């Protein structure tokens, strides 16, 4: 008669041992060695019956359990008051189990992180080695550009009554497109030429943000002779050439 048995496959003897402890719902600090050893040996026996390949680690663990079991069966020697209490034969095994569980927990977290990283996409860092210390900001800084824009908005506000004339939305994409086309034609221009005499605040801001973005990606250079002076916008090739 053919012998049939379904056995769970374990990565190693420690996984089998921990599984037996959990199935029997016993305290890991008070392992019933007789019961766990019997079940461990039964697993090895069943594995041999179905020709399941087990590593030598399972045999080593079985030997360790039998050794602990034999020590537990020995009569306890009465200890004098001034002598240290005899160490529990299971202590070293318990420490190994706890250490292995910590290792498995860390391994699982690393595996989850690896899966997460495999699903992520990263943009390669842009190469700015050819740009010398942000030379596209010639004699400019964010503070001076902001103050200049503020002055331009104040001048534009005095030229027109906003309550009488209304502006359509002026998106950043539109401002960007106008700047690029103007540079293709003129190579350089002043910011005041771009906005004209009667510009709305939303237009000025959109133009200003579009210029900052083009500066950031290295397509244009802006220059300013002095604080609050008009901003000169240049196509980068025209300066490098």
UniProtKB/TrEMBL annotation:
Q: Does the keyword NAD apply?
A: no
InterPro entries found in the cross-reference section: ScpA, ScpA-like_C
One Pfam family this sequence matches:
SMC_ScpA
Transmembrane region(s)? none
Gene Ontology CC annotation, any one:
cytoplasm
Q: Which residues form a coiled coil?
A: none
Keyword annotations from UniProtKB, A to Z: Cell cycle, Cell division, Chromosome partition, Cytoplasm
Q: Say if the entry is tagged with keyword Cell cycle.
A: yes
List where in the cell it is found: Cytoplasm
A GO term (biological process) for this protein? DNA replication
> What domain of life is recorded for the organism?
Bacteria
| Record-stated family | Belongs to the ScpA family.
Subunit structure, interactors included: Component of a cohesin-like complex composed of ScpA, ScpB and the Smc homodimer, in which ScpA and ScpB bind to the head domain of Smc. The presence of the three proteins is required for the association of the complex with DNA.
This molecule's function is given as: Participates in chromosomal partition during cell division. May act via the formation of a condensin-like complex containing Smc and ScpB that pull DNA away from mid-cell into both cell halves.
* Protein name stated in the entry: Segregation and condensation protein A
- The organism encoding this protein is Anaerosphaera multitolerans
């Amino acid at each position: 008669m053919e012998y049939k048995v379904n056995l769970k496959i374990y990565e190693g003897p420690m996984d089998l041992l921990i599984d037996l402890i959990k199935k029997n719902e016993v305290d890991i600090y008070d392992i019933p060695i007789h019961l766990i050893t019997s079940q461990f040996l039964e697993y090895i026996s069943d594995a041999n019956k179905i020709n399941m390949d087990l590593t030598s680690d399972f045999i080593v663990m079985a030997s360790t359990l039998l050794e602990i079991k034999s020590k537990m069966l020995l009569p306890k020697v009465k200890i004098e008051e001034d002598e240290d209490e005899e160490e529990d034969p299971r202590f070293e095994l318990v420490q190994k189990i706890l250490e292995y569980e910590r290792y498995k927990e860390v391994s699982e977290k690393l595996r989850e992180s690896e899966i997460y990283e495999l699903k992520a996409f990263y943009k390669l860092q842009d190469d700015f080695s050819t740009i010398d210390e942000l030379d596209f900001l010639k004699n400019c800084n964010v503070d001076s550009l902001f103050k200049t824009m503020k002055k331009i908005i104040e001048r534009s506000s005095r030229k027109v009554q906003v309550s009488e004339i209304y502006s359509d939305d002026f998106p950043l994409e539109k401002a960007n497109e106008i700047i690029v086309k103007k540079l293709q034609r003129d190579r350089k221009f002043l910011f005041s030429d771009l906005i004209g005499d009667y510009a709305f605040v939303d237009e000025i801001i959109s133009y200003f943000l579009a210029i900052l973005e083009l500066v950031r990606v290295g397509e244009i250079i802006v220059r300013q002779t002095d604080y609050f002076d008009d901003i000169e916008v240049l196509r980068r090739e025209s300066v490098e050439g």
